[in-house]
Design brief:
Order of helices and strands: HHHHHHHHHHHHHH
Structural class: mainly alpha
Mean pLDDT: 75
Number of strands: 0
CATH architecture of the largest domain: Up-down Bundle
Largest sheet: none
Oligomer: single chain
Shape: elongated
Distance between the termini: 49 Å
Number of domains: 2
Low-confidence stretches: 3-19, 164-197
CATH topology of the largest domain: Butyryl-CoA Dehydrogenase, subunit A, domain 3
Length: about 270
């Protein structure tokens, strides 16, 4: 395999001589292209396994893998080393994006569940504005007119909807006319002060939203997205069941989505 970057594993990362590397990548032979696809194909199974753990059993893992293959091929075809993004990171993003698109196209979440999930998100939004702090489970349940058992049952149903999780940011950018956050960064025509400021502000809003989560939810988000532990592993660390960790994750994501929605669409939030 012909390396593209300047380090001895140049195919793993973008180096600094952007023009020559972009040219080298663009001139990959069919054999070299296939080698990259083969080298990074284990990412497909890795991402599929992580997503499948949060999906109903009737969602086919094989379908996720199939769409992930297309995502990896797309990554190889569109990667530009001059943008100084590691290929592994870019490939994983494209693979996950392709799988999420496939899941959305299936529309396997009942409308009733989507509606209830939206109601929980709005309840968190309203209560936080009124209380000046994150709402407790009891307060959220009372706001929805639910007993605690029904409230926790609703959270269990909503975990499928929260699959989009932090990808809500990606979807919002896509709805604003961008393919994804990497395309936004890579578009030279958008690299002005206003866009750079906007992306920094978005990251700041997300960081502040995570920081304002209740402590247990903050820990779950940190362990899941930054330490990349599974729900089961987080449960072992914190001494909770996997089901309880899933509920904490769902609540955290609904709160974060509410914050992000207010940032990107203040009039509609």
């Amino acid at each position: 395999m012909r390396p593209v970057g300047n380090n001895r594993n140049g195919y793993d990362s973008a180096g600094t001589s952007g023009g020559s590397q972009a040219s080298a990548w663009g001139n990959l032979t069919k054999e070299e292209r296939n080698e990259y696809i083969e080298k990074y194909s284990p990412l497909i199974r890795y991402v599929a396994d992580r997503l499948a753990a949060r999906l109903p059993s009737h969602v086919s893992r094989d379908d996720l893998v199939s769409s992930g293959i297309l995502g990896l091929i797309d990554a190889v075809d569109k990667f530009d080393p001059s943008r100084e993004i590691m290929f592994k990171t870019y490939a994983e993003f494209r693979i996950k994006g392709a799988m999420l698109d496939e899941i959305r196209s299936l529309d396997w979440v009942p409308r009733s569940v989507r509606k209830k999930t939206s109601q929980v998100e709005k309840a968190y939004h309203t209560l936080e504005a009124e209380l000046g702090r994150p709402a407790s489970d009891e307060e959220a349940a009372a706001s929805l007119g639910l007993g605690m058992e029904d409230f926790y049952k609703l959270l269990d149903e909503a975990k499928s909807v929260s699959l989009v999780d932090i990808e809500a940011l990606r979807g919002t950018i896509r709805n604003n006319g961008r393919a994804d956050v990497f395309d936004l960064v890579a578009d030279e025509n958008t690299q002005d002060a206003l866009v750079a400021l906007g992306m920094r502000e978005a990251r700041t809003v997300l960081a502040e939203a995570v920081g304002n989560l209740p402590e247990k939810e903050k820990l779950v988000v940190s362990m899941y997205y930054f330490d990349e532990l599974t729900m089961k592993e987080i449960g072992t660390v914190l001494g909770y069941t996997e089901s309880r960790i899933s509920q904490l994750h769902t609540k955290a994501i609904l709160r974060l989505k509410s914050r992000l929605r207010r940032y990107f669409d203040p009039q509609g939030g």
